Target: Fimbrillin family protein
Amino acid sequence: MYVFMKEVWLYSVVCLCMLQSCTRIESDESGEQEICFRGNVQELQQVNLSESRVGLGSGNKVQLYIVEQDEEGVKLPASEDFYQMSSDADGNVNFEDGEKHIYPNNPINIYGFCCKGMEGNPVNLLKVPVMVEGEQVTGDALLRSDFLYVKSEERYRASDNAISLSFSHQFVKLQFCFRTDTPETVDLGQITTLEVLNVVREGNFDVTTGELTLGDAIDDIQVQPANESMVIVLPQRVKGGDVLFRFVQGGKERSYSVPAAGMSLEKGKVYKCDILINQYPGAGDKDVVISTRVEDWDESEPPIHIVFEDGQNVVATLTDVASGVVVNRADLYLSSENKVHEKLNIPVINNKMEFMFPREKKGETLRLNKARFYTEAGDEFDYYFKDKELLGDNLDELSLVAPKVGDAWGDGVIFAVGEVTGYDENTSSFVTDVKGINAYRGRMVSSKMLGELAWCESGAKGEKVSVGASDKNNGKTNTIALENFIKMNGEKLENYPAFVTCRDLGDGWYFPAYNEIRCVVANKDMLNVKIEEQLGDLISLVELYGSSTEKEGEPTHYIGPDKIGKTVYPYTKISQAKVRAVRAY
Model:
């Protein structure tokens, strides 16, 4: 028979991701190539539950199903494909039967799982019984509740190449962190009970597809009551209004109920629950604030954050909304001294919005940095605030006065307000429509010059031929034209430095078109943008600003920073020029 494995990597912080590596050895007797396995367990973090490690320890079993495939299709694993592997004290993973295995003639697919305490070959691979412990007050019980699964994404043929398998978590981890800003009145050592309520604890797992089918029984899970605790549950949907967990602190019972819309506990996710308990001297009991972040259990991927909180309901009012604009929903992006908050999907009725004010300390205020507003007509727009402090006293007002040319906006300065409809040669500025929602639309230029860059590198396919970047008013259109040219000609964007540098500034930024940078240069005083002046009649490369627009008969446009935004020739696409990025807002 045959088998594989590679270096076993098990990440803690609740990430048990195992990479296995194989070595092939020539057999003297048959000339067949043997597959040997060895695994090195990466050093793992200690967890706060007992002194155990979250990871593969001595005696842990890994169930593998190595399936020989024919050329016609994928075969699902069967009981006879089973190979059990065992980990020793040194972190090596070996076949438990002690025999040698070789690659077959046909390619192989690999399925497998690892769960502490689960040994042997399940009778039915379509319905492997799985469960989580009902009492997870020890590290060992927590590990018994974890379930790792792997399914190879490709067929493996006998070769010198190592086989890589990544085991992924199939269940959900909840982490609880209790804290207080008033330790003189709140003793976190008096947390006597912590329970996750009304969850499904059992189900059946399909090894061939990786799908879990939940059972019907609803039960509670007892968690270790401590300042920092964790529990593993099955992925499931919790109904809106149901109590997800409860705890007793200082003899008082408190609980967290799921929002009315319900809540999905997704496999492979860690739900980090921060529980702030404050009781200010002389002020009586205060509301407990619970905020929850959702991250990937495997933290190699960027985490996904959601926030829902129990706190104080406040009302804020929108004022000075542009005529014809009816806001019906809002997202607020706030920050305090130590934390960033996102309040999403806030209903807005008659320009008033009610939301939970995430105050962590008595009398704390929040800084409002940005908001996204959604209108009744289906439009949306971002609005940036400067030095806007919310008091959370139901008297907060958000003025949505339409911005004007020259205002600092986000990471730039506005040079056009409204939807662009043309360019006025006499005033060297854009003609725009500013009615209704367009009052909150326009374009801004980056506050900083990005360097002296070429339109393209020498030898790039777009150096001597047009790429279709002919738009004079919208550099975004020119960027799209270049991207299409690159795809058709098998090039890479890195051959076009000015375009790349503008794009890398962030979402939505681009290398400006001819009239965009022309407008900025001509109106530099109004915009308060540092544009270098020419020195007499001398024109130096470092005093020119490039555009993304190609011009008939000329390689591209370069703008000299005089009062009218003069076009300067001759310069090629590989000439160096100053670059500023532009973005629509």
